[in-house]
Design goal:
By secondary structure, the protein is α+β, with helices and mostly antiparallel strands. About 40% of the residues lie in helices and about 25% in strands.
């Protein structure tokens, strides 16, 4: 699974660093870091939304406060399939 997080200036201001850190920590806690590839991108073209995150190409808007729910739903949910 590939998870890409926008680290461009607009997403950086909206908490991209916290989103990256949170997703990496959760992957480690759930022992799935070998099954999830994290990458960064400098612009995903949705700068008016929250931090842009794609999971296998599907785009989401994630705030630092939503990282836990997003991880459970979109990452762990897909890994369980």
């Amino acid at each position: 699974m590939k998870v890409t997080i926008c680290i461009g200036s607009s997403c950086h201001v909206k908490g991209a660093r916290e989103v990256v850190r949170g997703l990496q920590e959760l992957a480690k806690e759930q022992d799935v870091e070998k099954r999830v590839e994290f990458a960064g991108d400098f612009c995903m073209g949705a700068c008016t939304e929250g931090v842009c995150v794609t999971v296998d190409g599907q785009r989401f808007s994630v705030s630092p406060a939503e990282v836990g729910g997003f991880f459970t739903r979109e990452i762990m949910g897909r890994l369980a399939l």
